[in-house]
Each structure stands twice: as structure tokens, then as C-alpha cells.
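Kindly review these C-alpha cells for lecture notes.

. . .
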Amino acid sequence: MAEATSPGELTDVIIASHAESLRAARGTLDQNAVARAISTLRSAGRLLVTASGTSLPVATDAAYRLTMSGLTAQHSADSYSSVLLAGLLALDMPSSGSSHP
């Protein structure tokens, strides 16, 4: 990074890089798998997203985004509450869990 680079220019470079990564990722998606995932999520009464460790912020964001998209998503930052919520799920309900040390 050159010293002459302004904070605004650096911000533009970072955002452009992320935008390009997202565009590139779209090309790697199996659209049939995406359609099946959407169908599964829509058919669920509610979704539980769990995580621990450094995955916790990702799970919190996922639950927020799922809720903003019109789905009913739950998330707990506490592992004991997550176990309790998981116990309330029907056996055929989708769930997602993640843990990263």
C-alpha cells in the first residue's frame, strides 16, 4: 500500500475486491442445489442456527439474514440454550451447527 493512497481509495479497493469475490463465487454455485436448499428452508416452521467459538459471529449473522429474508430463524449465543432450543425442534426440521476452535 503506497503512502499516497488515501483512506477513501483504500476503502474502494477493499470493497471492489469483496464484490469481485462474490461475483466469482456465484459461478461456482450449483443452482439445483440452491433451489433445493431454498425449498427446504421455506418448508421449515423455524430454523435453528447454532455455533460456538469463532463461528459464533457467523451464526449470529446467518440467523439475522435468514430472518430478514422472511424466515423464522433462532440463534442463541449460549451453548446450553442452543441445546435446549435444539430439543424443541421437530425431527424433520433443518438445522445448522458450526464450531471452530
Q: What stands out?
A: The first strand starts at residue 47 and ends at 53. DSSP finds four helices and three strands in the chain.
